[in-house]
Amino acid sequence: MQTPQIIPMTAVDLSGKRVFIRADLNVPVQAGVVTSDARIVASLPTIELALASGASVTVMSHLGRPTEGRVEAEFSLQPVANRLAELLQTDVPLIHSIEDCADNQGLALLENIRFFPGEKANDDELAQRLADQCDVFVMDAFGTAHRAHASTHGIAKFAPVACAGLLLQAELAALQDALAAPKVPMLAIVGGAKVSTKLEVLESLADIAQQILVGGGIANTFIAAAGFSVGQSLHEPDLIETAKRIMQKVTVPLPEDVIVSKEFAASAVAQVRNISDVAADEMILDIGPATARAWAHQLLGAKTILWNGPVGVFEFDQFGEGTRVLAEAVAQSQGFSIAGGGDTLAAIDKYAVTEGVSYISTGGGAFLEFVEGKVLPAVDVLAQRGKE
């Protein structure tokens, strides 16, 4: 797997230039206040470098899922502009018209790009309007790089110069380190509800990892494939043969014990069961303590770790111990570790292991599609521009 050769923003003269930065500022907002600014903070180095280089900078992003082409106050980027201003200690005006971006002399934020018709359809007219406002387009939103939208793909076709921001470069480099020629042994942790949603990820990792530790509903399908009862657990009987095929390609250790309950609720009573003792009316909701210890030991010896998804219903503490133990093992490992996906990042926050993970990806869908070996449209167009 090779990262496409794209022009880094550090190779472009930005002095006196109008720079359009596509960032991923799709952050949670409640009552007009940003409640988690992690994505904003991740975007700061690119913005600061452009400003320090003497450019006038307009940042654009989407927020939420408004009806495209309609201005909806709840999805305004004003709270993001406010937080950006606090972090950079400078004024960050919110621009409501695309054509006004060209007049920006400092730092400004364009209102939610999805308020403009044609964004998701990658409309050439909208893309050209955006490109007309800049001398240099900097793509820095890895989290949206798997979408061919006007603000991520279309503008890169028409802008005089199109290059990659610091965050996008870092994301691609980290994934390249983990996937192209990983140091061995490489272990992957893949959790989630369904094998079907992670099938291509599992198939891809089966070719490069020495072990895949599976959790959540995904694990239940593999447990069923090995001939054990999973009771009332979420699993996919129609993918049992697929699970068997994957187990023939790569080591997928089954849990020796699991945490079960008869109900899915915050008040549910958790009990430890041997994998062979799950009752017909029980649900598997986490890996058991013996399994967690064994898998943690494996992780401590890994040279490369890729983590996508918790191994239990960690939102409920009684079903979160497996994820906690593995999260701490990932953080303690001396190998290179990369983690991605919304639930994974939530687990990293919950168990306070951020500092121990080598690289935490800001992308969800883009992270998965890169692991699957798919071409990311926004990266591909930068590579095409680079060839020019």
Keywords summarizing the entry:
elongated, Rossmann fold, 5-stranded parallel β-sheet, 6-stranded parallel β-sheet, single chain, alpha/beta, 388 residues, 36% helix, 13 helices
Compact description:
The protein contains 13 helices and 16 strands. With 388 residues, the chain is an alpha/beta fold.
CATH architecture descriptor of the largest domain: 3-Layer(aba) Sandwich
Sheet-strand content, in percent, reads 15-25%
* Total number of distinct structural domains: 2
The low-confidence parts are none
Q: Termini distance?
A: 23 Å
Main sheet summary: 6 strands, parallel
What does this structure look like?
- This protein has 2 domains: 9-166 and 375-387, 3-Layer(aba) Sandwich (Rossmann fold), CATH 3.40.50; 184-334, Rossmann fold, CATH 3.40.50.1260.
- It has a 6-stranded parallel β-sheet with strand order 5-6-4-1-7-8, with helices on both faces. A 5-stranded parallel β-sheet has the order 10-9-14-15-16, with helices on both faces.
- Strand 2 and strand 3 form a beta hairpin.
- By secondary structure, the chain is an alpha/beta fold.
- The protein is elongated.
- The chain has helices spanning 38-52, 78-88, 124-131, 150-158, 166-179, 195-206, 216-225, 240-249, 289-300, 321-332, 342-350, 365-371, 377-387, and strands at 18-22, 29-30, 33-34, 56-60, 94-95, 107-110, 136-139, 161-164, 186-190, 211-214, 257-261, 271-274, 283-287, 304-308, 336-339, 359-360.
